[in-house]
User: Fold this.
Amino acid sequence: MKSFKFKQIGGKVAYYRKLRELTQEQLAQKINISSSTLSKIERGMYNKNISILMLNNIAEGLGIKLVRLIELDEQDLKIAQSNEKATPDSNWA
Assistant:
């Protein structure tokens, strides 16, 4: 379940980054992490625990509330499984 949660969070990070038309490099620079670390987070492959501070920095860099990255609903399941850009709906704004 832990790896699924990381994939879910990573899928959301990728979704919102693409929605904001940011590259991995741009977002990584904005939040002061390497683009390779961001790539691993987006793929759910970050082999360290992600701190709440890092998650908060990512959320702020994306202009969203932290809860958006950590809550789970049906749409999140689809995004986590595909890790592709999904069509936003009013529940995601």
Confidence is low (pLDDT under 50) at residues 84-93. The CA atoms of residues 73 and 79 lie 10 Å apart. Helices lie at 2-19, 24-31, 35-42, 52-62, 67-70, 74-82. The radius of gyration is 12 Å.
